[in-house]
Amino acid sequence: MNLDFDSDWLRLREPLDDAARAVGLAWAFGRILPAHPMIIDLGAGTGSNVRQLAMKLGRGEQDWTLIEKDRKLLAKAPGEIGRWADRNGWEHKEQRRAYMITCDDMAVRVEMRSFDLAQDPAELGLNQYDGITAKALFDLVSQPWLERFVKELAGCGYPPLLATLTVDGRVEFSIPDEDDGFVLDLFHTHMGRAKGLGGPALGMAAPGVLVATLTAAGYKVEKAQADWKIGPKQIAAHLAMIAGYERAAIEQDPGSAARVHAWAGRRRHLASEQGARLLVGHLDLLARR
Question: What is the pLDDT of residue 8?
């Protein structure tokens, strides 16, 4: 779903992510970290993990490194972080390649780093960090990529990993349509297309494969559901999801375009005129030694 890489969509989904998070796992991740942790965030986009986790880690001083291939998204991170700080009444300023946010009981330094995750994970220098985070990443990667990444984690001494908002394939519309299954099957097949990370993407199989791979490597894994619950107040996100399902399904089976377009039209009506709700299943996961 191309929405994942669009800054407008990232802004639209951020409140959904924040509401869905398994806060208990975030607190548990924070308790593992030292008093002044160095944290690396993979596939960071515009830095939403910093904005959503910094206040949940229970650590007054934090150093974050944002890893993102898309330089356009990374360039927008300081502005998004600055607006977040302004909303909370915090001081903020740029320092060379980093951004500083300070308030009475917290100081957060955020550094932006352009890096293509298709490269060797050893080049990330994971052994320099006390913890690793990633949001909505692991359904995009391939199994060989994941195995190589987890091997690198083990070689770096098993740093804790907080992986959030990984799609698990559950999609529930409060008002059903006869073609929901048809369109979603096409969409989930499309999710498995290669995303440039070592082969076919894991898609909705990602949570199970991630848990199995980490466990086999020697990690202990905790998991919790972190579902998007999209209602009438989130109509823009609902319509964006319908458009994403529609686009992906047609790309997967162009011959079904008319049927998919008709489905999308009915779905937009149900969302806009009848207050239909949408649940999208995700999993949050904490891995530690």
Answer: 87
